[in-house]
Specification:
The protein is of the alpha/beta class. Helix content is 32%, strand content 17%. This is Glycoside hydrolase family 3 C-terminal domain-containing protein.
């Protein structure tokens, strides 16, 4: 719809109608305005597939949502390093959205993997912002090609699930712009997402939902974003301040509570109607754009399943191979592990998909005609249990077969949205099974399923290690094709696998809380840290093996490049093996003598090349001027310092055989504070301690002590778990748990789901008892609860408020 029509509709809307449009009607729909021509549009969760709730047909669907193709998770797809593949997945999911009348998919997520402990890492792409951003561009373009909108999330610095609804991510300006905002910037500028979703957390003390610097200053004014900004579900803090900051749409809505606050603020002249009109214009443009393209269309689910299989084949990473893979015809093969029959193929949380055509590796092997025996080895399920009988049975079977393929990894209870891991180990029952199988004296190939790296003290016991991550519904067929060599593993790691948790850059500052988490490592995230301190790692960023081999040669680069110019880099890659395969070529930039502290190297460009045996192809990588830049806080912008830069090309961050030096024109006299200089402590880091006094030279830490609130300090942002030191607080937490347990389904196991909900509701801020109650509880009642828990009276107001809520329930809302 053109702007004139939007303006015409805007003039007909009452103040109350405008305010009402700025919040959701249901958990998944926007509000219509009857008689004014404003429709309601539907949105649904992603990004591994469509998750449209359909409780009415739950028995028929076999789950609470419609059946849809479940693709590999973002963490898995990142191993492909292929934006064309993520585009194809986006197209397929977009088609399924259209088939079900969904206009906007709440994906993709591009938060940076600051630590492998993050419980939601399976839903994010990479530890590097360039790679994450480019993959997101492909996905968004795929969705938009089908007329479906997206919601780029979670903006910003939501790299920790612990206390995500209240914690403040304290980040210095360079890390914020170079690392944590960069992927969003790439996606916004290159793919033009229809919406951006703000995160739950605070960024440097200000809730993302209230953060004008981020939502308007950076997103709109610097990057040129002209779409809609919506909240994550229940992420609103101060709704009036949110309108000022640039938060257009509150989801899922608060039963009208916040709409009334907007109206009252305008009447009190605390908010101008023009500020509200700005949000409504964006909302109307979004709604009408969605309405024009939400006509249902048929889609080809069989083709989508085939794509899910191919996506995993091109994303899985072969981490070790002593020659046992690919498996050979005629070998006696034994599959071991419950995950061979009941694979873990997606992460837990709001992204969980009701898969249409899940096939296990065991079922696929038998359907494809491979002769495979099976031994369970451990009892399965989410609890870590061992069974001596099953262990003996598997060991005896292994001795009678040529090769054992052990399926192991992380279960739902180990990682999920809503909480973080506390260690990097896999279940002890899995490692015990591996040790027993190894003792049988036959080769053992391990197939790993999980959303994030794990420690591998058992790696020497495995003859091969194939990382599927979380492979989607096609995991069975893809795993078999990879194991038997019908598909060549060509994926590479989008994150470093450390030797141990204690080696990770954020080890001393992750997770933190309850008030704040400080990003003391600054820009030294992932390989930027490991390569700078020259730390040993288990598997480096960009690493992955193949069934064939490749050689690099003939690097050609200009000797110099002018200010602001693009650099074209050329080199040759040859498939020196006997099989067709794909190689992911990577280029890193190293600044030889920077004035400011920098990482040893940064990914600047990459390309995926498919080659037949013996084939040579010239690869051209184009590096924009931005590849040589860093963020200069004094200028509030990226700058390129003039100097010599080494270009490093190869198959991984730790194997870069081709080198060339280029002189880049740029700034010659930079205004740098002492803390930013290469001679500062951050210019000579040696380990991951990153003390607070270092960090405070870059960014001031909050003055408030990082401890739980005490009686007398409770406010609307206090988590219910902290309020539980009082009995009314414990009662409210129990009510929230009961309500959450009835509505939240993050995993299929009811027992594990209850555990997740219990953890989440303890971290639920008091304000969210209002936001998520659909108008049953108002702020006056929440404030009365706080007064009671703080020992300031308030009993009468609390009881009246709860009584009113019960009456509303009795009336059906």
């Amino acid at each position: 719809m053109d702007q004139q029509k939007i303006e015409a509709i805007l003039k007909t809307l009452t103040l109350e109608e405008k305010a009402s449009l700025c919040s959701g009607l249901t958990s998944w729909t926007t509000k219509p305005v009857e008689g004014k021509g404003v429709p309601s549009v539907f949105m649904a969760d992603g990004p591994t597939g469509l998750r449209k709730e359909d409780r009415e047909h739950e028995a028929e669907n076999g789950g609470p949502s419609v059946r849809a193709t479940c693709f590999p998770t973002e963490a898995t797809l990142a191993g492909s390093w292929d934006p064309q593949l993520t585009r194809a997945v986006g197209e397929a999911i977009g088609a399924e959205c259209r088939a079900h009348g969904v206009s906007t998919l709440l994906a993709p997520g591009v938060n940076i993997k600051r630590s492998p402990l993050c419980g939601r890492n399976f839903e994010y792409y990479a530890e590097d912002p360039l790679l994450a951003g480019k993959l997101a561009v492909g996905f968004i373009q795929g969705l938009r090609s089908q007329g479906v909108g997206c919601s780029l999330k979670h903006f910003a610095c939501n790299s920790e699930e612990t206390l995500r609804m209240s914690i403040s991510s304290e980040v210095d300006e360079r890390a914020l712009h170079e690392i944590y905002l960069r992927a969003f910037e790439i996606a916004v500028k290159e793919a033009r997402p229809s919406t951006v979703m703000c995160s739950y957390n605070r960024v440097n003390g200000v809730y993302a939902a209230d953060n004008r610097e981020l939502l308007t200053g950076v997103l709109r004014e610097k990057w040129g974003f002209d779409g809609l900004v919506m909240s994550d579900w229940g992420a609103v803090n101060d709704r009036v301040q949110g309108i000022r900051a640039g938060l257009d749409l509150e989801m899922p809505g608060s039963g009208g509570v916040n709409d009334e606050l907007i109206v009252q603020a305008i009447k009190d002249k605390a908010l101008s109607e023009e500020e509200l009109d700005t949000a409504v214009r964006r909302l109307l443009r979004f709604v009408f754009d969605c309405a024009e393209s939400c006509t249902p269309v048929p889609c080809d689910y069989e083709a989508h399943h085939a794509l899910a299989v191919r996506a995993l084949e091109e994303s899985a990473v072969l981490l070790k191979n002593n020659g046992v893979l690919p498996l050979k015809k005629g070998q006696k093969i034994l599959f071991v592990g419950d995950m061979a029959e009941h694979p873990r193929y997606q992460g837990g949380g709001s992204s969980i998909v009701n898969a249409r055509a899940l096939e296990s590796p065991l079922a696929a092997a038998r359907r494809l005609g491979y002769e495979v025996s099976f031994a369970r080895g451990w009892p399965g399920g989410d609890e870590d249990r061992q069974d001596a009988g099953l262990l003996r049975e598997a060991t005896a079977a292994a001795a009678a077969h040529d090769v054992t393929v052990l399926f192991l990894g992380l279960t739902d209870v180990y990682e999920c949205e809503g909480y973080d891991r506390t260690h990097l180990s896999i279940p002890p029952s899995h490692t015990a099974l591996l040790s027993a199988l190894r003792a049988a004296g036959k080769p053992v190939a391990v197939v790993f399923s999980g959303g994030s790296p794990v420690e591998l003290p058992w790696l020497d016991q495995a003859d091969a290690l194939l990382a599927l991550y979380l492979g989607g519904e096609g995991v069975g067929q893809a795993a078999c094709r990879l194991l038997w060599g019908e598909a060549d593993p060509c994926g590479k790691l989008a994150e470093t696998w450390p030797l141990s948790l204690s080696d990770t850059p954020a080890f001393h500052h992750y997770p933190m809380g309850p008030r704040y988490v400080s990003y003391n490592e600054s820009i030294f995230v992932g390989y930027r840290y490991y390569d700078t301190v020259k730390a040993q790692v288990r598997f480096p960023f960009g690493y992955g093996l193949s069934y064939t081999s490749f050689a690099y040669s003939d690097l050609s680069a200009p000797e110099s490049v002018g200010r602001g110019e693009e650099l074209a880099l050329r080199f040759s890659v040859t498939n020196t093996g006997g099989r067709a395969g794909a190689e992911i070529c990577q280029c890193y930039v190293h600044h030889e003598a920077p004035s400011a502290f920098k990482a040893e190297q940064e990914l600047a460009a990459f390309a995926k090349v498919f080659l037949r045996p013996g084939e040579t192809r010239q690869v051209v990588l184009k590096l924009p001027a931005r590849a040589f830049s860093f963020y200069l806080p004094a200028e509030q912008d990226f700058v390129v310092e003039q100097g010599r830069y080494e270009l490093r090309v190869g198959p991984s961050s730790r194997e870069l055989p081709l080198r060339a030096v280029v002189t880049v024109a740029g700034e010659t006299s930079l205004r740098l504070p002492a803390a930013q200089l290469a001679s500062s402590p951050y210019g000579s880091i040696r380990d991951n301690r990153f003390p607070d006094d270092w960090f405070e030279t870059l960014h001031p830490l909050p003055a408030r002590e990082n401890r739980p609130a005490q009686r007398g300090e409770f406010d609307r942002t206090t988590p219910l778990g902290e309020l539980a030191v009082t009995w009314p607080g414990r009662l409210m937490r129990r009510i929230a748990y009961r309500v959450g347990g009835a509505s939240i389904r993050f995993v299929r196991s009811p027992r594990v789901n209850r555990r997740i909900v219990r953890r989440m509701t303890s971290e639920f801020p008091v304000k969210n008892t209002v936001l998520m109650s659909d108008g049953l509880i108002d702020y006056e009642t929440a404030d009365a609860l706080l007064d009671v828990c703080n020992g300031r009276g308030g009993w009468k107001r609390l009881l009246c408020g709860l009584g009113a809520a019960l009456k509303k329930l009795g009336r059906g809302g």
